[in-house]
Amino acid sequence: MKSKIIIIAVIAAIGAGIWYAKAKNSPVGVGEISSFDECVAAGNPVMESYPAQCRTKDGRLFVQETEQPVIPEAVKIVKTYAAQQAKVNEDEVVIISFSEKEWSNACLGITSPGEMCAEVITPGYEVALLINGEESTYRTSNSGTLIKSL
Questions:
Q1: pLDDT at 120 (0 to 100)
Q2: How confident is the model at residue 81, as a pLDDT?
Q3: Which of 51, 71, 80, 93 is the most exposed place for a label (fewest CB within 10 A)?
């Protein structure tokens, strides 16, 4: 009789352990989801959009938080300059990308015949823009006071 009770107790303990392990490792319940990360962790589908979106089984939508890139003032100046040169509204010029660069001379690495350039490291930006459906690349100094088109 005692052995039957011990066997039942052992089986109950094993069952309780299995139940606890499953409960501990199971994904967050639908009602407990309160953020994009929890929605993804629960195995819900993520929409390929920007920013990414996750929808729970009960229809709630969570949007991934993103930081807007800070556009340096010199890059904004290039955008304005390019719009003026193309004779279009500045809203029609799209910044595709920009990156910090260092050029080996004060002419931003672009020299014209007869042009004198100080041989100093010159920091600035290379900026890719979309104007009237065509991609254009510009270089500018950190201050935006010198702009050259490639």
A1: 94
A2: 97
A3: 51
Longest dimension (CA), the chain: 107
Nearest to 94 by CA among 79, 73, 75, 84: 79
**Domain limits of the chain?**
33-66, 73-149
For 101-145, the three-class secondary structure string (H helix, E strand, C coil) is EEECCCCCCCCCCCCCCCCCCEEEEEEEEEECCEEEEEEEECCCC
53 has which bridge partners?
47, 63
Give 67 or 109, the one with higher predicted confidence: 109
Res 104 pLDDT > 60: yes
d(CA 49, CA 31): 24
Q: How far apart are CA 7 and CA 12, in angstroms?
A: 9
Residue 11 token pair: 């089986």
- With CA atoms as reference, report the closest residue to 64 among 85, 87, 46: 46
Sequence-ordered list of residues with C-beta below 8 angstroms from that of 122, at least 6 positions apart, any chain: 102, 103, 104, 105, 106, 108, 141
Confidence of residue 9 (pLDDT cuts 50, 70, 90): low
